[in-house]
Amino acid sequence: MFLDKDDNIDPEFVRSMTGEEERQRKLAVEEAVRQILRNVGEDPDREGLERTPERIARMYDEILGGYWVDPVALVNEALFDVKYDEMIVVRDIEFYSMCEHHMLPFFGKAHVAYVPRDKVIGLSKIPRIVEMFARRLQVQERMTQQIAELLSQVLDPQGVGVVVEGAHMCSMMRGVRKENARMVTSAMLGNFKDNSKTRNEFMDHLRRPRIEGA
């Protein structure tokens, strides 16, 4: 039911992983980091780098933790029957992700909106959904679409709109080296795609200044 075509999750693998398999996976990451350090001309056994492979393995567990999140469990018991059919917007959701092409960070804000049909989702779940998809090797275009599609599947709303603004280190510190360039992507489903009035209302919300202190 939940993004089983292009989603990068394999929850059955995660559920079946034993403690020993988890330990071996982390050791494999550590050894891979040691190989990289050797091949860029460093000594992985010198004092400053001695524990770097271990630190990176732990870091990857954290910043790529979205692979281990089951979306079914994430939204479980957070759907509510509510008689409400106006737009709901959650804006300025900070995210941090990793570009799959160079494994460098990209980061920014996501803005998510939907028009309910007969269900709403708990407020905290929308930022958690954004985080789940951000904490993987990603491209911003796919991440934007995944957020919209999951909300559409779990809520069956009248429509979903997602806009993501991101700054990409792969273009800021290498390649074209343009530090002020920002990428904006959007995914519009249902009446956000078919009805310009709904889409424009969403965009108007994004142009409004933040509430002072919010």
Compact overview of the structure:
The chain is of the alpha+beta class. It has helices spanning 11-16, 19-39, 52-63, 71-75, 125-134, 140-155, 169-172, 191-194, 196-207, and strands spanning 79-81, 88-99, 105-115, 119-121, 137-138, 159-168, 183-190. The strands form 2 sheets. It has a 5-stranded mixed sheet. A two-stranded antiparallel ribbon has the order 1-4.
Tell me, what is the CATH class of the largest domain? Alpha Beta
How many structural domains does the protein architecture include?
2
Secondary-structure element pattern, one letter each: HHHHEEEEHEHEHEHH
Q: What spatial form do the alpha-carbon principal axes imply?
A: globular
Question: What structural category arises from helix and sheet content?
Answer: alpha+beta
Strand content: 15-25%
Distance between the termini: 36 Å
Tally of DSSP β-strands: 7
Largest sheet: 5 strands, mixed
Which assembly state applies to the chains in this document? single chain
CATH architecture heading of the largest domain: 2-Layer Sandwich
Q: What is the residue-mean pLDDT, rounded to a whole number? A: 90
CATH topology of the largest domain: GTP Cyclohydrolase I, domain 2
CATH superfamily membership of the largest domain = GTP cyclohydrolase I, C-terminal domain/NADPH-dependent 7-cyano-7-deazaguanine reductase, N-terminal domain
Question: Biggest sheet, strands in spatial order?
Answer: 5-2-3-6-7
Rounded radius of gyration (Å): 20 Å
How many separate helices? Answer: 9
How does this structure look, described?
The protein is α+β, with helices and mostly antiparallel strands and 214 residues long. It folds into 2 domains: 53 residues, GTP cyclohydrolase I, N-terminal domain (GTP Cyclohydrolase I, Chain A, domain 1, Orthogonal Bundle); 131 residues, GTP Cyclohydrolase I, domain 2. 42% of the residues lie in helices and 23% in strands. The chain is built from 9 helices and 7 strands. The strands form 2 sheets. The chain has a 5-stranded mixed β-sheet. A two-stranded antiparallel sheet has the order 1-4. A hairpin with a 5-residue loop joins strand 2 and strand 3. It is globular, with a radius of gyration of 20 Å.
